[in-house]
Prior knowledge:
This protein has helices at 26-40, 72-85, 156-167, and strands at residues 12-21, 45-48, 63-70, 89-90, 100-105, 125-132, 170-171.
Amino acid sequence: MIKMSDKMKEIRVEKITLNVGAGKDQKLLEKGIKLIKNLTGVEPVKTVTQKRIQGWGLRPGLPIGVKLTLRGKQADEMIKRVLYAKENRLNESCFDDHGNISFGLPEYVDIKDAKYDTEIGMMGLQVSITLARPGFRVKHRKVRNAHIPARHQIKQEQAIKYMKEKYSVAVGEE
């Protein structure tokens, strides 16, 4: 019987996603675009609603937020900056059982090297970090996509251990 090599068990950062939700307020949406562009230097993408929710005044095709996905070196640098804003401390509830870490930042000025912009004012954003292992591509490929077995998925404890080792994050309830 052949054992899986340790190389296939190594965890890495797949991507980091920055998200600002604005609802139907278009002024807030423009501020969100400017905020993410100022933080990263990359133009974000608008997210649009798919459903009609009459009580909230939403209709299909209405822009309700902006998001940006970073990978590679840009992602690594942004993770260090946003963790600095959280004082390298995350709650255990920020980690899920599939290798994702998600938390909010109430004020963007806490992010390292972020300057206050009077046009934007004070606003926050949502940060999501996705962890992956080699072989995770099989669930996203077009031809013969496959399920990732439970033994290869990233558990909450493994994600916490990775963040502690790589980014010196303290994890615990406050």
